[in-house]
Model the fold of this input.
Amino acid sequence: MDKFLQEFGYLFNEVNMELLKNMAALSPRDFFSQFNTSKLLRLSEFYPYDFDDRENIKLELQLSLYHHSVLKDTKFANLKSIVDLSKMMVKTRKHLSYHLVYRLLKLALVLPVATASVERSFSVMKRIKSSLRNRISDDFLNACVICAVEVDELVNLTNEDVIERFQKMKTHRGQV
Done:
């Protein structure tokens, strides 16, 4: 894990690194050897809209109870990833008892996907809005970025679909 974190250090900024380190505290590997309440509470602080001060206090208590509960439950003994952990929590219905822990777990699962999507979108936007095209309107830029990001969906779009959509619009002047 330390090697991965060191390699990621070259790719991610300090905030992202802290998020990854705190997410590792949820890992069920080696029977929850990485579990750390203070890191998980710190992780929740990155989500102020999902965890207010009152919920953070409750989360601290839930984390302690949750940790003791999963250590005693043999169903959680051989889990390898937080995906497996989330599935087992639902299967054993612990997601209902420890709803704040489960919410934190869901946020940890979504974070890498959301971060990659946002980074990819900004990368595409940077290519589209070059110095030669820096005067395009926001609406046009938005349309170009959507087309560039959702290229897999555009492959399924036919010329006939575009023509039909255009003809249904009220603002055009003639038929295509």
